[in-house]
Amino acid sequence: MDEERELLDCLVRNARESTDDLARQTGLDPETVESYIDELEASGVVRGYQAVVDWDRVDDQHVEAEVELNVELDRETKYDDIAPRIAKYPEVESLRLVSGDYDFAILVTGDSMRDVSRFVSEQIAPIPEVTQTVTHFIMDTYKHRGVQFVGDDEDDRLSISP
Amino acid sequence: MKVADRIEQVPPSGIRRFFELAEEMDDVISLGVGEPDFSAPWAARQAAIDSLERGRTSYTANRGTAELRDEIARHVRRYDLSYDPGEEILVTAGASEAVDVAMRAFVNPGDTVAIPDPAYISYVPSVTFAGGDPLPVPTREANDFVVTPSDLRRAGAADADLLVLCYPNNPTGATASEEELAAIAAFAREHDVDVLSDEIYAALTYEGRHTSIASLPEMGERTVVVNGFSKAYAMTGLRLGYAMGPPDAIAAMNRVHQYAMLSAPTTAQYAAVEALRTCDDAVEEMRRAYDRRRRFVISRFEDIGMPCFRARGAFYVFPECPGDDEAFAEELLREESVAVVPGSVFGESGAGHLRISYATGMTDLKEALRRIERFVDDR
Question: Which of B27, B99, B123, B292 is most worth mutating to test chain A (most A CB atoms within 10 A of its CB)?
Answer without folding.
Answer: B292
